[in-house]
Automatic annotation (TrEMBL), chain A:
Subcellular localization: Mitochondrion
CDD domains: Trans_IPPS_HT
Cofactor or coenzyme needed: Mg(2+)
EC number per UniProt: 2.5.1.91
Function field: Heterotetrameric enzyme that catalyzes the condensation of farnesyl diphosphate (FPP), which acts as a primer, and isopentenyl diphosphate (IPP) to produce prenyl diphosphates of varying chain lengths and participates in the determination of the side chain of ubiquinone. Supplies nona and decaprenyl diphosphate, the precursors for the side chain of the isoprenoid quinones ubiquinone-9 (Q9)and ubiquinone-10 (Q10) respectively. The enzyme adds isopentenyl diphosphate molecules sequentially to farnesyl diphosphate with trans stereochemistry.
The protein's name in its UniProt record: All trans-polyprenyl-diphosphate synthase PDSS1
Organism: Patella caerulea (Rayed Mediterranean limpet)
PANTHER family in alphabetical order: ALL TRANS-POLYPRENYL-DIPHOSPHATE SYNTHASE PDSS1, GERANYLGERANYL PYROPHOSPHATE SYNTHASE
Catalytic activity: 6 isopentenyl diphosphate + (2E,6E)-farnesyl diphosphate = all-trans-nonaprenyl diphosphate + 6 diphosphate; 7 isopentenyl diphosphate + (2E,6E)-farnesyl diphosphate = all-trans-decaprenyl diphosphate + 7 diphosphate
GO cellular component: heterotetrameric polyprenyl diphosphate synthase complex
A molecular function GO annotation: all-trans-decaprenyl-diphosphate synthase activity
A biological process from GO: isoprenoid biosynthetic process
Principal subcellular localisation of the protein: mitochondrion
Automatic annotation (TrEMBL), chain B:
Any one Gene Ontology BP term: ubiquinone biosynthetic process
Annotated GO MF terms: prenyltransferase activity
Lineage: Eukaryota, Metazoa, Spiralia, Lophotrochozoa, Mollusca
GO cellular component: mitochondrion; transferase complex
Protein name: Uncharacterized protein
């Protein structure tokens, strides 16, 4: 048992190294620092590890700025930290989001409009626009900038980010043959695969036009990178890696491309629009990257722990699609028999059930949560480098919301 | 729709897109081969960089699974990789010829050093030509996504067709993503805007009411000839016109010159579509299967009848009967004249540019479709 445990520890650490090397060499330093906390605090022995694990998973997690803050608190006005509601700070902008997006489609024919607007029904979480808008204000306040023109452009980025996200959802639903999305019948079942794909392309073209009209070449470059990442991420889901270590870094790189890149780059874009120095645009990027990865890790975890009703989509959906996400990859360290199932993409009958069972028996879910927490911590560490403001505090609170969400 | 018809329309759909650029093989091939020499290299390797990427190699590897099915992706891919004679990539060629015809604006020319241009074309214009091809190909691939609820027994197993869709979505997205990063690198947001709008136009062209759920052509009530013009602009004119316009923007030409380039591309596309639409009527033995119910001659026939013919009567006729009806009057001649007119407008719009080999090549290409 002890041997298994140490193997697990090594495995986790190894993942970290691969992960760091795979995604961003520049930040290897900070991740190692976190990695150390990780290995010391979480895996000193079996007993304490499960203690901490149980605690952190059972209770509501609150990562506060105190424990990770690298900068002394120099805010003059006090901010009621826990009660800064991210949504209410940008509520006005978010309430007009759907209308603004629909406005962009006004030139389309009636038939095309119906398909492209199907997912823009105001029922989405608008998570990305919220983060982007808060980041805009946090950056602007950091450099004492109040330029209505720039704020307007930043708001456009939040609209564009939501459009790019939705365009990719539409295509994903066709690729994954999804039945439902946010509790409603998926676009491919309502309009057919062909029209859905074409509608996705249309949304993307409208987003690209809106992006170009900001008239800033650098912003166009930053966000076109997202479009490329989204596709490359989708391609990465096609294959399974033979090598176990490669498999985890592959998964994390895929997660970055499919989920985190949009957040990272749109956060960076609004900082660039504010004419922030590179250190600030980097903070924005790293915050978006880390919260994006944390977001997806929790998403992958919920696919194992949530029931259909809460999530609005069928659970174990990833396994059914043949995808091995973090909980399975962690579980495979403990139960190597999962490796052959991963390689054949859970294609034989009973594979999905076996995998679910082994994941439940293993600490895969807890370890996934811990990994998400690590990314959450890093996001907070990054955003703490900006001057205090309500929006900056809200960005910290969002990390906790992401880590504690159940849907 | 019966089994046979379905098969036919699927292949018709692709032949239409493939054959779009292949009128009069002799004249056409000659014009294109000459033109390729002028721009410096054959354009058929333009998308090779994309085709050789890991991502598309991956798709190609999986393509084997589609063999034996009716998935349109198979035909599109085949045409793309093997069929050099079809000159699929002549949109890019036209963009390059237009770039060379216009040259760079005098104030920009002063800033350039000799190595900035190869064969009289800016590197950014070559990228643009490649992007134009990528957008067209991506659209061709995405239009070939099939509705799984409308499958016919001979299409192949549902699982395989679903897989074909997946490959089609991914490879089309891959090309669009490359187009998007390529556009960003041009460092000109006006070009990004105008070329992005082409993608929107291509999609809008699939939602005009002139096609059924599966993208097969159909007529709509109260059709007018402007429906044809609009359809042609959206599905082919826009990309060609706006790419030509963008090529001039990259060379810092003013709005007036850009408009001329736009007009050339647009009218060239009209002429070409008319040429394509006419083929089944002029040489029915080879092309009767390619006849489209929403082609210019059929629409002109409907409009020529008094009282106006209900479209439902034509929807139920087979191609041979339609051929005989349309051929009776002067409609074919009218359409040929219209084709010539569009070709002439295209050629006239080049008047503002000095005579050159590249300009002659463009004129030759127009004449290859109008004569």
């Amino acid at each position: 048992m002890a041997a298994l445990r140490s193997r697990l520890n090594n495995g986790l650490l190894r993942f970290w190294i691969y992960h760091a090397a795979g995604i961003e060499n520049r930040y290897i330093h900070s991740i190692f620092k976190d990695g150390e906390i990780f290995s010391k605090k979480i895996y000193p022995s079996k007993q304490s590890s499960s203690l901490i694990l149980n605690q952190s998973c059972a209770n509501h997690i609150t990562l506060t700025s105190h424990s990770y803050s690298q900068t002394p608190e120099h805010d003059k006005k006090s901010i009621d930290k826990l009660h800064v509601s991210p949504h209410s700070l940008v509520e006005k902008d978010l309430s007009s989001l759907t209308d603004e997006i629909r406005q962009e489609f006004s030139t389309a024919s009636k038939e095309l409009c119906e398909v492209v607007e199907y997912y823009f029904d105001g029922q989405g979480k608008a998570f990305r626009p919220m983060v982007v808008l808060l980041m805009s204000h946090a950056c602007n306040k950091h450099i004492n900038l109040f330029n209505p023109q720039i704020i307007k452009s930043q708001k456009r980025i939040s609209v564009i980010a939501e459009m790019i996200h939705t365009a990719s959802l539409v295509h994903d639903d066709v690729i994954d043959a999804a039945d439902t999305r946010r509790g409603k019948t998926s676009v491919n079942l309502v309009w057919g695969q062909r029209k859905s794909i074409l509608a996705g392309d249309f949304i993307l073209s409208v987003a690209s036009m809106a992006l170009a009209r900001i008239r800033n070449e650098q912003i166009v470059t930053i966000l076109s990178q997202v479009i490329e990442d989204l596709v490359r991420g989708e391609f990465m889901q096609l294959g399974s890696k033979e090598n176990e270590n490669e498999r985890f870094s592959h998964y994390l790189r895929k997660t970055f491309k499919k989920t985190a890149s949009l957040l990272a780059n749109s956060c960076k874009a609004v900082a660039v629009l504010a004419n922030c120095e590179e250190d600030v645009t980097d903070i924005a990027y790293q915050y978006g990257r880390n919260i994006g990865i944390a977001f997806q890790l929790i998403d992958d975890l919920l696919d194992f722990t949530s029931c259909d009703k809460i999530l609005g989509k069928p659970t174990a959906a990833d396994l059914k699609l043949g995808l091995a996400t973090a909980p399975v990859l962690f579980a495979a360290q403990q139960y190597p028999q999962l490796n052959s199932l991963i390689m054949r993409r859970f294609s034989r009958s009973g594979d999905v059930e076996t995998a679910r069972h082994l994941v439940a028996k293993s600490e895969g879910v807890e370890q996934t949560k811990l990994l998400a927490i690590q990314h959450g911590k890093e996001a907070i560490r990054q955003i703490n480098q900006l001057d205090k403001s309500d929006e900056q505090q809200a960005l910290i609170n969002i990390v906790n919301m992401v880590l504690n969400r159940s849907k | 729709m019966n089994k046979f018809q379905h098969q036919q329309t699927l292949s018709q759909l692709n032949q239409r897109s493939l054959a779009f650029w292949t009128s009069r093989p002799d004249d056409w091939t000659k014009a294109v081969t000459e033109a390729e020499k002028i721009v410096g290299y054959p354009t058929s390797f333009m998308s090779l960089r994309c085709l050789l990427s890991d991502e598309l190699s991956n798709v190609a590897m999986h393509m084997r699974k589609l063999v034996g099915t009716n998935h349109p992706l198979l035909r599109t891919a085949r045409g793309l990789v093997y069929d050099g004679t079809h000159n699929l990539q002549t949109r890019g060629l036209i963009v390059l010829l237009m770039s060379k015809t216009a040259g760079v604006a005098p104030h920009k020319a002063q800033q350039l050093v000799e190595k900035d241009m190869i064969d009289g074309i800016l590197p950014s214009q070559r990228s643009l030509a490649e992007i134009t091809e990528m957008i067209h190909t991506a659209n061709l691939i995405h239009k070939g996504v099939v509705n799984l609820s409308d499958l016919q027994p001979n299409d192949g197993p549902v699982k395989d067709m679903e897989f074909g869709n997946k490959m089609a979505v991914l490879s089309g997205d891959f090309l669009l993503a490359n187009a998007s990063t390529g556009l960003a690198q041009l460092n000109n947001t006006k070009v990004v805007e105008v070329i992005s709008s082409c993608i929107g136009d291509l999609i809008s062209g699939e939602f005009t009411g002139l096609q059924d759920e599966n993208g097969n052509p159909r007529l709509k009530p109260d059709i007018t000839f402007s429906d044809w013009t609009n359809q042609t602009f959206l599905t082919s004119g826009s990309l060609l016109a706006k790419s030509c316009q963008a090529a001039l923007e990259l060379a810092d030409h003013d709005q007036n010159f850009q408009k001329k380039a736009f007009e050339f591309g647009k009218n060239m596309a009209y002429a070409q579509q008319l040429n394509e639409d006419l083929k089944p009527f002029i040489t029915p033995d080879d092309n009767i299967d390619q006849m489209s119910i929403s082609s210019a001659p059929v629409i002109k026939y409907i409009l020529s009848q008094t009282p106006a013919l209900p479209v439902s009567t034509l929807n139920n006729l087979d191609n041979r009967k339609i051929l005989n009806l349309v051929k009776e009057g002067s409609i074919i001649k009218d359409c040929q004249n219209l084709c010539l007119e569009y070709g002439q407008i295209a050629i006239d719009s080049l008047d503002v540019f000095p005579d050159s080999q590249a300009k002659s090549a463009l004129i030759n290409i127009v004449q290859a479709v109008t004569e």
